[in-house]
Design goal:
InterPro entries: DUF4179, DUF5643. The chain is α+β, with helices and mostly antiparallel strands. The chain folds into 2 domains: about 5-210, Sandwich (Immunoglobulin-like); about 220-335, Immunoglobulin-like (Sandwich). Helix content is about 15%, strand content about 40%. Strands 10, 11, 12, 13, 16 and 17 form a 6-stranded antiparallel β-sheet that branches. Strands 1-2-3-7-6 form a 5-stranded antiparallel β-sheet. The longest helix is centred in the N-terminal third of the chain and has 18 residues, at about 35-50. The chain is globular, with a radius of gyration of 20 Å. The two termini are about 40 Å apart.
Length: about 350
Amino acid sequence: MNKERFNQTIDNIEIPLEKLVAREKAAMYQAKKRRKVGRKTKHSILVACGLCFTLLGSGFVSKGMAEALSNIPVIGPIYKDFRDIASDKIERDQLMTVIEEQDSHDGITMTVKEAAYDGGRLIVTVVYTGEKNLSLKEDVVGTNFITINGEPVKPAIGSTGQDDLNSKTIIEHHQFTLSNNHEYGNHVEIAVHGENLFGHEGKWKVAFPLEKVKGDISEFYPEVKTKTVDEVYTVTADKVTFSPLSTRIDLTVDYPVEMDKNDTWPWFQFSIIDDKGNVYDGLKLQEGMAGNNGRKMVLTLPPMDTLPKSFTLKPNNVDDVGQSEGLNELELVIPLDINE
C-alpha cells in the first residue's frame, strides 16, 4: 500500500477532534525514517479515534464529587467510554493498580490514578486538575509521553485519548500493545511526562513502580501459513498469546523486497472469527506493527476467559480509491491446541 492510498483511507474517517487530542509521544515519533513511522502514527491515530468518544460530558462537579474523584479509583465505566478492549475484564476483575501519585506545577496537577501491565500491554489513567479552566482546544499542543524503565515505550499499537470531566478536570487514557511480549519482566518502573500542558509552561513527571497483573498467560506457536497463488504474499501466524489484558496474534507478512524500496508494501486489514462464530473487527480488533514496513504485524483482541479452539483470519486489501477488497487466498485458520 503506498502512502497516498493509505492517507486517503485515513482522511475518509471522521475524527472527533474536539474530543481527541493526539499528543506527540516519543514512542510514536522517534523512528529515524519518517516514511515508515508516518504509516504507524496514522494508524495509531485511527485506533485512538475508535477509542475516544464523549466520556462523561462537561458539567459542574460538586466539592463532594471532587473529593470522591481524588479518593476512589476511576475504574469500570471510564474504560468502556474510551472503548478499551479489556474494559469488561478490567471492571469485573479489578485489574487496575491504584497509583494516586501526582505532580503540581503552574496551577496544574497531574495525577496518575491507575495503571495495569501484563507483560504485553500497558494501560495508564491520568487526571489533570487546574486552579483555572482547562481546555482540550489548545492553540499550541503540549507534549506528553510514557517511559518504561527510563526508556520511551516502543509499541506495536498505542493511543492517547482525552476528555473533560468538567471545566477544570481532564481525564486521559493511555494504552499500548508492546512490540515484544515479556520484554520488561514482572516489575517495571513507569513514568508519565508532560511539558507545556493546556497552555501552561513547565514540565510534569509522575514516576511509580508497577507489578504485572496476576493471571494466567497462555502461549501457542501454530506456525501455520498461507500464500497467494502467485506467491507474492505470504502470511504466517507465529504466535498467539492469551493474557489478562488482551489476546494477541503475531503475524509475519512476506512480500517482494522491491515493495520496500518504492513504498508499496501491503497493510492488510483483518477481521477474525473464532470457532464459536464470534467476529472480531472494528473496535474489537486493533492492528499494529512490531517491525518496519508491516512485515511483523500484531493483532490485538479483547482478553478471553475461555480459550477458543481456533481463529480464522480474513484479510482485506484497500485499493487505490479506498475500497476494501477481501483476499480469500490469504484466509488463514489458526488451530489452538488448548491441551498443550
